[in-house]
Design a protein that fits this description.
alpha/beta; Aspartate Aminotransferase, domain 1; 2 domains; 13 helices
Amino acid sequence: MPGFEVFGEEEKKEIMEVLDTGVLFRYEFPEQRRGVYKVRTFEENFAGYCGAKHAQAVTSGTAALKVALTALGVGPGDEVITQCFTFVATWEAIFDVGAVPVFAEVDETLNMDPADLEKKITSRTKCIIPVHMLGAQARIREIKVIGDRHNIPVLEDTAQAAGGTLDGKGLGTFGACGTFSFDAVKTMTTGEGGMIITDSEKLWRDMSEYHDHGHDHVPNPGTRGGEGRSFIGFNFRMMELQGAIGLAQLAKLDTMISSQKKNKAALREAIAQIPGVTFRTILDEKGDTATFIAFFLPDGGKAKAVNAVLAENGAGAIAFGANTWHFYPKWEHLLAGSTLAKSGWPFNGPDGKRRVVYDKEALPVSAALMDRLLVYQGPVKLSEQRLAQITAAVKKAAQI
């Protein structure tokens, strides 16, 4: 990752077709655009690629989560369970629809632990958001069974796992909806952008209308100005330039994943030399997108010592236990209830009383896992020189 490593003539061609029409807006201007509808075509192609019936393009993966949660009817007074190892956008979107995020432990898949999920369900739980974190599968089948048993919809956050599968079925297609991110560091990228897939025509139609100020998109004599609106919405529309890049990147996705798998295998061979190392549990190696390679050392002290040697030799790994964007105890603004709202919302309710408090020590199982976890990104392109540098660094680290 990411997809900008393979930007080329294909992206330029798609972009120029948009610029030649002069139409950057995804709707209207039929005569001027001469049949060029990049966002609509991107949606159709992406849905087909994933094995879903419908897709809705939006401005970001964060917007995708908010639009999907809104279409699922989640709002104030509700709780949404997600996992403690994810990007902040997952729980930001939950807060932004007025709901309260509840965090579950992760297991050695680095994704939601179904057993802990079930413990966190209450009468207020209205959605479950497992995350296919670092490009590999959550225990989505078990999670879906739990959701179905409690009549709670599952929304898959597939931001980091576009192109991933489990037993041949596309990630994002197990739950009611699946959301994706195409930001600047994703395997396929449009710079910014996101997508939601679903098999439900009603959910798709509600998302389509909500993301465009509630417009019903029904053809009428008044064109855009004459559309009706059944409910209020907002603006999360993807523009044609993003759709154009997405089309070119989607056509390259399988090739990019194949390259990442090759490079991940080479990195794994090197890392396996470290005494006591174990690797993240991958439920289906064939369906892994190989965007990252994650490995554990026997304890936190060993992980820090190994990574210090790696860093000294130009090959430091990501220590997600210390990373401030992706792990619960490091989200200082969440723990402190920091907000720009004078009322204290979303941490305080309309009455001014605190509606939620988060304990830094609440998820000890995940903390123990993260303390001994190290991760490398899986690049689309890995030069022989860079692989040799990492391999040499790992050999030195293996000697401590």
